[in-house]
Amino acid sequence: MATFKAIRIDKADKGTTVALTQFDEAELMDGDVTVRVEWSTLNYKDGLALTGKAPVVRRFPMIAGIDFAGTVEASSHPQWKAGDKVVCTGWGMGETHLGAYAEKARVKGDWLVALPQGLSARDAMAIGTAGFTAMLSVLALEKHGLSPKSGPVVVTGAAGGVGSVAIAVLSRLGYHVIASTGRASEADYLKNLGAAEVIDRSELSAPAKPLAKERWAGGVDSVGSTTLANLLSMTRYGGAIAACGLAAGMDLPSSVAPFILRGVCLLGIDSVMCPIEPRKAAWQRLASDLDRAKLSEITTEISLDQAPEWGAKILAGQVRGRIVVKIL
User: Fold this and answer.
1) pLDDT at residue 226 in the model
2) Residue 54, pLDDT score
3) What gap in Å lies between CA 104 and CA 93, rounded to an integer?
4) Are the CB atoms for 223 and 197 separated by under 8 Å?
5) Spatial contact of 175 and 166, defined as CB atoms under 8 Å apart
6) 3 state DSSP class of 178
7) Nearest residue to 245 (alpha-carbon basis) of 139, 129, 150
8) Where are the alpha helices (DSSP H) in the chain?
9) Helix (H, G, I), strand (E, B), or coil: what is residue 133?
10) How are strands ordered across the β-sheet holding 153-155?
């Protein structure tokens, strides 16, 4: 049987081991579509898996990587045929299903989305789960009724992958975007993406009051914990915050005050098991609403063998924007 390059994670006596190795095609898991993977990406969750800092990986051996873009090699699924260009994000890849840091992947055809017209496979992975999550957040805010006329919107973790794409999209849609970051040196980068204001994350780090001065109509939060509690306490009457991350922790030291006294809504965003129709809608909006020039500016390219090193960097807050991983 054929073998191919892959980043393999194995269980060790203490923690896990990670290595770029040859993987036997016979060991691929069940699926009705086999894809030749061309590009992947590096998300925060990939960093957790590669470093073993959190129990993201649920089976061993595991091929890391939660996203890929590539070309269908073989298919018994009625929707896909050899030669089709596809994107796959989430669905437990890199966690419970062999993932994307490999030259081949076998998945369920129901997990796939056609590569949107106008996007290259590299573009799709420059967006990746982080950008896809950012767009799901924007769609949720729009569904809530937010528009640029509603008032300013805040984006936390602004220099990260979710934050960078959220700022680029929201600013292009006409929103006044307030970017929150712990990296003051990134102010020019964030303003170039479209942020109208940049605030230090320390403004959102103190214990949250039940209600604070109203500052924004909505926001996208990838940080969680005290930061999210402060966002909620500062959201205008009838506004909403889309919560999609936990970089600072899973806790939420808040109160019911914003919800019952200002009618604020907390919108939960899940990209992993998101149904297929919202996935298609998000990818189409990304193809139309994300400036390609800005996408290029926020993207750094690495090789497959560099993924473990960069996985540690993303957890240390040393990565700006998006990372694409060249597979083939």
Assistant:
1) 98
2) 87
3) 13
4) no
5) no
6) strand
7) 129
8) 44-51, 121-144, 161-172, 187-193, 225-233, 257-261, 276-289, 292-297, 307-315
9) helix
10) 197-200, 177-181, 153-155, 216-221, 235-243, 265-268
Q: Which of 141, 180, 184 is nearest to 164 (CA)?
A: 180
pLDDT tens digits, one per residue of 171-215: 999 999 999 999 999 999 999 999 999 999 999 999 999 999 999
Residue pair 155/219 in contact by the 8 Å Cβ criterion: yes
Residue 328 is which amino acid?
Answer: L
Model pLDDT for residues 129-139, shown as the tens digit of each residue: 999 999 999 99
Could you give the maximum distance between any two Cα atoms of the chain, in Å? 64
Which structure tokens are listed for 138? 């924007």
Residues 269 and 137: beta-carbon distance below 8 Å: yes
Contacts of 279 (CB under 8 A, 6+ apart): 89, 113, 132
Predicted TM-score of the model (pTM): 0.94
